[in-house]
Write a structure and sequence with these properties.
The chain is α/β, with parallel strands linked by helices. It is 44% helix and 11% strand. It contains 21 helices and 15 strands. Strand 13, helix 20 and strand 14 form a beta-alpha-beta unit. It is globular, with a radius of gyration of 27 Å. The termini are far apart. The relative contact order is 0.09.
């Protein structure tokens, strides 16, 4: 927002106001040059981008795009942060995740920038009896510990409390979270969780451990099942409300119950959507607390994790860029704690280099970029404020839908929630398959000659409930078929790119076709003749004008040379001898899968 200088000089004061309609007319003029005849609001709509949850990002936001007053940091509705000081005093809490009993790795993290530990314990993680050894040498009064133990939450929590007592840590000095999340466990495993132990741990923390929380409201299971930002928000609200009911029935006040919850969200490489989601989450939880009669207890404590869904196995180095953007968004969105997943997270157990890069991502943003020195830096942006408001409404509507189904537990057990998430993911899968949502290094700019990054296998995660999806999964399956063919035959499946005319005519479509087929593990061949290429299929690459002149003859010549299938890179037309067309927006997964099938690549 514009703030006038002290002398009152307004630099734009001598210029007339430009009406919105004038800008729309200018947009329409530009679009007309590209062949689109639209006027007024339709011109603006042509430049808008559709998001999930029925939201749209418009090309221009002005002061007329109103949103509710976000308030001040540390005050309801907490849109701008749950604490008045935000993260300005030392940055956000840098929380590293560990799933194996490696005390050396834990100490290395703490000695080099990590400020709290997130320990996956029990089944698929660190054995509960090993917690003491893993935490050997850790100053528990300085490093908060957050547990994630699934079905073994109660014994893991009791073991951690025993360690506090054994090492002489005063109860009021203990900080962290015992990690009880029976509904999250049910979402992961498909087995009903028991709320009673969680309520007992909450009562214990409320009475004797003021710095320790007992429950986590984990929205990651819904994000990892393909849910949208609004569905993630709605599920977290429904889960949080369910826990408030459980804890107040167990004898805690609403204020005490709210103080036992920590919320966990995903941060993606869509930085503005992530920022808006975290701001909307705080606003929505503040509303819940207000309705429950405890408005001052509505400051949501947020633990944000870089999205596992966006992590790729091919060209994993690009994951560093994805997690950097996600971490920036988490910090700008006001997260209290941030976990940066190592770039090799999807491949297995991270090595020391990957862990170092992960923790240094936060360190650089805090210490060198000074991102945490400004509270809610995106606040006041007309776009961010409007997106926050729209996302809050969409999240609230999904929360109401879950409540109408009987609450979070009922929605999980009926399968309705799973179906909603599956429907959302199916729509996104279509965009991924058509490369409308490109994945760098996977569906765009793949590198077939890359040396695989190999890691030790990680423990199997909890399964049996909601699925875990990845953006790269369908292209990964295609690349795996190509890898198997390479291992069995010594070469990858190949396709011949037949360039027609001069470079100026064919380069763009030849590059497009090369990129497309490499995404499926099919090696493009551009040199020599079709007979020498070792390919069984070919792609014509040129301009529309040259296609009219030479496509038919070239296709027939290729088939005479042994080509079983001929593609044309461009919009579908009527060219004899051409069997199929590849173009921007085609279903790349379907094209590539069918091509591998014809080539006999199982």
């Amino acid at each position: 927002m514009t703030v006038l200088p002290d002398d009152g000089l307004e630099l734009a004061g001598d210029f007339p106001d430009v009406p919105h309609e004038q800008w729309q007319r200018l947009v329409a003029g530009v679009l007309r040059k590209s062949g689109k005849e639209v006027e007024g609001a339709e011109a603006e709509e042509a430049l808008s981008t559709a998001l999930e949850d029925g939201l749209r990002t418009r090309p221009l936001y002005t002061a007329h795009d109103t949103a509710p007053e976000p308030g001040l940091p540390g005050f309801a509705p907490f849109v701008r942060g749950g604490r008045a000081e935000g993260n300005t005093l030392g940055g956000w809490d840098v929380r590293q995740r560990h799933a194996v009993a490696d005390g050396g790795a834990v100490l290395a993290d703490l000695e080099n920038g990590v400020t709290s530990l997130w320990l996956a314990a029990g089944e698929g993680g660190i054995p509960v009896p090993e917690l003491g050894r893993v935490l050997d040498g850790v100053h528990l009064d300085l490093a908060p510990v957050v547990l994630d133990a699934g079905r073994e939450t109660e014994p893991a929590a009791r073991e951690l409390l025993r360690l506090y007592a054994e090492r002489g840590l005063a109860p009021e000095a203990a900080r962290g979270n015992l990690g009880a999340d029976p509904l999250g466990q049910e979402a992961r495993s498909g087995q009903e969780g028991d709320v009673a132990p969680a309520a007992e741990l909450a009562r214990l923390c409320a009475e004797g451990y003021p710095g320790l929380r007992a429950l986590t409201v984990d929205a990651l299971p819904y994000h990892e099942a393909g849910g949208s930002a609004a569905q993630e928000l709605g599920c977290s609200l429904a889960t949080g409300v369910a826990y408030l009911r459980n804890l107040t029935e167990a004898g805690l006040s609403v204020e005490q119950a709210c103080a036992q919850l920590e919320f966990r969200y995903a941060a993606t490489a869509d930085q503005f959507l992530t920022i808006a989601k975290l701001r909307a989450a705080r606003r929505l939880w503040a509303r819940v607390a207000e309705v429950c009669g405890a408005p001052r207890a509505g400051a949501q404590l947020q633990h944000v994790v870089t999205s596992p869904v966006m992590m790729t196995r091919r060209d994993p180095w690009v994951n560093m860029l994805r997690t950097t953007i996600a971490t920036l968004a988490a910090g700008a969105g006001g997260a209290d704690s941030v976990t940066v997943l190592p770039f090799d997270h999807a491949l297995g157990l991270p090595d020391a280099f990957a862990r170092r890069i992960a923790r240094n991502t936060s360190t650089i943003l805090i210490e060198e970029s000074h991102l945490s020195r400004v509270i809610d830096p995106a606040g006041g942006s007309w776009y961010v404020e409007r997106l926050t408001d729209e996302l809050a409404h969409a999240g609230w509507e999904f929360f109401r839908r879950i409540e109408r189904l009987g609450g979070q537990a009922a929605a999980l057990r009926s399968g309705d929630l799973a179906q909603d998430l599956a429907d959302t993911w199916q729509a996104r899968r279509t965009k991924l398959a058509k490369r409308r949502e490109p994945v760098t290094g996977v569906s765009e700019f793949p590198y077939l000659a890359e040396k695989p990054v190999v890691r030790e296998s990680a423990p199997e995660p909890l399964s049996g409930g909601l699925p875990r999806v990845r953006r790269d999964e369908e292209f990964e399956a295609l690349r795996a078929r190509s890898d198997a063919h390479l291992a069995a035959t010594g070469s990858r499946p190949r396709i011949f790119l037949a360039a027609i005319g001069p470079a100026a005519a064919h380069t763009a479509r030849l590059t497009f076709a090369s990129n497309l087929f490499q995404a499926g593990g099919i090696e493009p061949v551009t040199d020599g003749t079709f007979e020498d290429s070792g390919a069984t299929e070919a792609v014509l690459c040129s301009s529309d004008a040259l296609y009219e002149e030479q496509a038919e003859a070239t296709a027939r010549a290729l088939k005479a040379s042994g080509a079983r299938h001929v593609f044309l890179a461009g919009r579908p037309g009527q060219y004899p001898g051409v069997d199929a067309y590849v173009f921007a927006g085609c279903d790349a997964v379907a094209v590539l899968s069918a091509t591998l099938d014809r080539m006999g690549v199982s």
